[in-house]
């Protein structure tokens, strides 16, 4: 039974109960005006089901991912355009960043806004945002063939699915156990992709916005009920992205310092020298490196650190130990 079917069943149940109540009133010869108070609970249920639950249920059924915020701004249903735009843009940006970090696209160059674009299924002033996958660029008979032929579609689908995995993992005391089990069965899920997924989950709930208490991730990416990320689970994600999960393989690489995220201490090294085929390397730097990073945006730098590699021995994620101008 779909979400919409469940709500429609409840609507029919309330209507049936009201019909039985009217029959009872008629049999007793009671004036319906005097018995109006008997219907108040049913009418409130109808309003809640028709105005709130049914639109949400339809969005749940049609969305690959549904993000629902809780807090003062969400409860009033009168959120400002500025905040809605900020939350909407953050979600889209994080999905794009995850898709960029997908192992299958590590060497590709293309225009992201055109090649990776979700379709909106819900957007309400109660801060509910729904999205679904676009049609793949390659037509094929089944999902498996489409994913083989269209790497953009594969990366976007895996990114949405992994957001659901991350949200589920944060419900546990040790999220890495769930994440590592998922990664073991997926060759394209490496440390770079995992890191971008954890950062995305953390950024969905703004760190300084006290009017937002939690965010729920639901839709087809989550089986069953939605997964809630509150401040406690936000802290778990923050702890993991600041912990070290990189092996001891040392890498020295030269490239241009781009796409800095000061909030979580990440940048991307692009236009790599020495014949590397990857489009860029995701790098995690420490607090003592921040002044250098701020002063060398878009400049050529040399970086040394511990790195993880893909199956072709191309660098994917690097824990920075040292860096200097090249």
Outline the secondary-structure elements.
Elements: H1 3-27, H2 40-62, E1 65-71, H3 72-76, H4 81-100, H5 112-115, E2 119-124, E3 128-132, H6 143-149, H7 151-169, H8 175-184, H9 191-204, E4 212-218, E5 227-230, H10 231-242, E6 250-261, E7 266-270, E8 280-284, H11 290-295, E9 300-309, E10 315-325
Parallel strand pairs: 8-10
Antiparallel strand pairs: 1-3, 1-4, 2-3, 4-5, 6-7, 6-9, 7-8, 9-10
Report on the structure:
Strand 2 (119-124) and strand 3 (128-132) form a beta hairpin. The model has no long low-confidence stretch (mean pLDDT 85). This protein has helices at 3-27, 40-62, 72-76, 81-100, 112-115, 143-149, 151-169, 175-184, 191-204, 231-242, 290-295; strands spanning 65-71, 119-124, 128-132, 212-218, 227-230, 250-261, 266-270, 280-284, 300-309, 315-325. Helices cover 44% and strands 22% of the residues. It is an alpha+beta fold. The strands form two sheets. The protein has a five-stranded antiparallel sheet, with helices on both faces. Strands 6-7-8-10-9 form a five-stranded mixed barrel. It is built from eleven helices and ten strands. The protein is elongated and about 90 Å long.
């Amino acid at each position: 039974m779909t979400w919409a079917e469940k709500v429609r069943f409840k609507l029919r149940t309330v209507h049936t109960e009201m019909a039985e109540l009217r029959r009872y009133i008629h049999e007793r010869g009671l004036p319906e005006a005097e018995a109006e108070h008997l219907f108040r609970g049913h009418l409130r249920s109808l309003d809640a089901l028709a105005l709130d639950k049914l639109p949400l249920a339809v969005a749940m059924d049609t969305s690959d991912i549904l993000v629902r915020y809780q807090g003062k701004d969400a409860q009033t249903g009168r959120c400002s355009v500025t905040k809605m735009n900020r939350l909407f843009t953050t979600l889209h940006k994080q999905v794009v960043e995850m898709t960029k970090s997908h192992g299958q696209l590590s060497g590709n160059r293309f225009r992201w806004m055109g090649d990776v674009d979700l379709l909106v299924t819900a957007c309400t002033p109660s801060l509910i945002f729904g999205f679904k996958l676009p049609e793949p660029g390659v037509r094929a008979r089944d999902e498996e063939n489409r994913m083989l032929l269209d790497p953009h579609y594969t990366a976007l689908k895996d990114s949405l699915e992994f957001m659901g995995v991350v949200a589920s993992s944060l419900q546990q005391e040790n999220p890495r156990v769930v994440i590592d089990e998922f990664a073991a069965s997926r060759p394209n899920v490496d440390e770079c992709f995992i890191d971008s997924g954890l950062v995305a989950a953390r950024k969905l709930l703004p760190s300084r916005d006290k009017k937002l208490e939690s965010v729920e991730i639901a839709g087809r990416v989550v089986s069953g009920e939605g997964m809630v990320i509150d401040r406690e689970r936000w802290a778990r994600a923050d702890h993991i992205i600041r912990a070290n999960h990189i092996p001891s393989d040392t890498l020295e690489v030269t490239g241009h310092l781009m796409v800095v995220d000061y909030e979580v201490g990440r940048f991307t090294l692009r236009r790599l020298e020495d014949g590397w085929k990857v489009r860029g390397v995701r790098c995690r730097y420490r607090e003592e490196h921040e002044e250098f990073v701020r002063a060398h945006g878009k400049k050529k730098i040399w970086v040394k650190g511990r790195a993880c590699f893909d199956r072709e021995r191309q660098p994917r994620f690097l824990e920075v130990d040292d860096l200097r101008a090249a």
